[in-house]
Design a protein that fits this description.
128 residues, mainly alpha, three-stranded antiparallel sheet, 7 helices, 3 strands
């Protein structure tokens, strides 16, 4: 299960739309490693509109948090809205944040390209 959803939040979702603040609180509490990683990367975005982190998670549980957060369209979208960035992801742990204004840049296109993915491979990452 990706998120630990309280009975109250589940009831709210069953009754209608849930606001970003409630959803983000659930994400932050359920996936603390992913939240900290994305927040740290977003906080390091510089004047060039880019920052990344390629540090492998310390445990498989934390790697799982990152994978669940970035593989879910709703979680990823909420994180992007909250932190004001566009996220990109390579391998099973390299997270990048771009300001929305640079998403149409050569740097962004290079990061998300098949070539960028292939160049970011190494034997020690193949089992992740």
């Amino acid at each position: 299960m990706s998120l630990d959803v309280s009975p109250e939040l589940l009831a709210a979702a069953e009754a209608g739309e849930v606001d970003d603040a409630a959803f983000l609180s659930c994400v932050r509490d359920s996936l603390p490693y992913a939240w900290r990683t994305v927040g740290a990367v977003a906080g390091r975005v510089g004047a060039d509109g880019f920052a990344d982190d390629a540090t492998p998670p310390p445990t498989e549980a934390e790697r799982g948090q990152l994978l669940r957060a970035l593989a879910s369209t709703s979680i990823r979208g909420a994180l992007e809205r909250h932190f004001g960035v566009v996220l990109a992801f390579q391998n099973c742990h390299r997270v990048a944040a771009f300001t929305p204004s640079v998403v149409d840049s050569d740097r962004y296109r290079a990061f998300v390209s098949p070539r960028g993915q292939l160049l970011n491979q190494s034997p020690e990452l193949r089992d992740c």
